[in-house]
Write a structure and sequence with these properties.
Elements (H helix, E strand, L loop, with lengths): L1 H20 L1 E6 L9 H16 L4 E6 L10 H6 L5 E5 L12 H4 L7 H14 L1 H8 L3 E16 L13 E4 L3 H8 L3 E4 L2 H9 L5 E4 L1 H6 L8 E18 H6 L2 H34 L5 E4 L12 H16 L4 H5 L5
Parallel strand pairs: 1-2, 1-3, 5-6, 8-9
Antiparallel strand pairs: 3-8, 4-7, 4-8
Helix pairs in contact: 2-11, 5-6, 7-12
Length: 335
């Protein structure tokens, strides 16, 4: 009887110790849970896999839809520990994270979504300056979410650059304002969440976007012409963790998160490809969106525009100041 009591007490202490060592990490995102797109669905996959791979010892609690921090507040919220993990929409912070926003200075560029993700992985693995830039804000990137190939979704047909002259086009970041002006159009700075209304009310005539995102934000309800201007894939999002939280993980959990970050990119890429195919089928059917090809060579003269070149040269200057081999990195981004 005495042994049974001691055994029970020992078991209780083991369970208590396991519970004490368990961690629930918070993840903050601007994405709504019900978006049913590759972004939201891949995040749910991440949550489920983390719990599974840690044997239920640890889990991630999601805070969807900007409920903890708006998209523009996420880096500060993560840096200060308001959330443990979260999405940083890199193009919104070209001054804060210029190295990690390299793609945002080089539009158009030739890489697709998988190519952009691979480039980011390689740059982080090869050049410590990329991680150090994030570490200055107490952040660590454990995965990368490149967006899809972008084209231009418009309210009216566009067959050539001449058709874009005088158009108002949604803009953000560094490259797009200069690129839009070089096309003879007017850049209009509008957030992603406000672009639907801007298209609906003809505040803007077009928006650079990919098919899956256009459907996710329902832009294709109010703009029915998609022009396959080869801007290349946009980057995108950093899947980021507070650096103190990352360092505070035990070695096994940290290794689990590192591997999960690699596997996430594969799973997200699969979901994104499925999303785009589904959307293009819908466009060809009930949604009635007209898709128009646009020859890549029509964009090449735009790259010689002084404003476009100035944006690229600005990133190169920052990269050189950080001690990066600029020519080697930029060679991946030449259109």
């Amino acid at each position: 009887m005495k042994l049974t009591k001691l055994t029970a007490m020992a078991s209780a202490m083991v369970l208590w110790a396991a519970a004490a060592n368990a961690e629930t990490y918070t993840y903050i995102t601007y994405k709504p849970q019900g978006a049913n797109d590759a972004h939201a669905n891949s995040l749910q996959w991440l949550v489920d896999e983390f719990k599974k791979r840690t044997g239920g010892k640890h889990e991630i609690q999601m805070f969807w839809g900007g409920s903890v921090a708006a998209v523009g507040e996420t880096p500060d919220a993560l840096a200060s520990g308001v959330g443990d993990m979260g999405d940083i929409v890199t193009p919104y912070f070209p001054d804060q994270f210029p190295l990690n926003n390299a793609i945002g200075f080089f539009i158009p560029q030739p890489l697709d979504s998988a190519g952009v993700a691979e480039a980011m992985v390689n740059w982080h693995a090869t050049y410590p300056q990329f991680a150090e830039e994030l570490a200055q804000d107490n952040l660590h990137a454990f995965s990368f979410r490149a967006l899809e190939n972008y084209g231009l979704l418009c309210k009216e047909p566009v067959d050539s650059l001449d058709d874009l002259k005088g158009k108002r086009i949604r803009s953000y970041g560094f490259a797009y304002p200069a690129l839009i002006e070089a096309m003879g159009a007017t850049p209009v700075s509008i957030t992603t969440s406000d672009t639907y209304e801007a298209l609906e009310r003809s505040i803007v005539d077009c928006a650079p976007i990919g098919p899956a995102l256009a459907r996710g934000f329902k832009y294709d309800e109010v703009a029915k012409y998609y022009i396959e201007i080869p801007f290349g894939a946009s980057f995108g999002h950093l899947l980021t963790i507070n650096l103190d939280t990352y360092k505070g993980m035990d070695e096994e959990t940290r290794a689990t998160l590192d591997q999960l970050g690699k596997d996430y990119m594969v799973e997200y890429g699969r979901m994104l490809a499925d999303d785009e195919k589904r959307v293009r089928d819908l466009w060809n059917g009930d949604l009635g969106v007209t898709v128009t090809p646009f020859p890549a060579e029509h964009l090449k003269p735009i790259l010689e525009d002084p404003k476009v070149k100035a944006v690229r040269e600005e990133w190169q200057a920052k990269a050189e100041a950080a001690g990066l081999p600029v020519d080697k990195i930029v060679s991946d981004l030449q259109f």
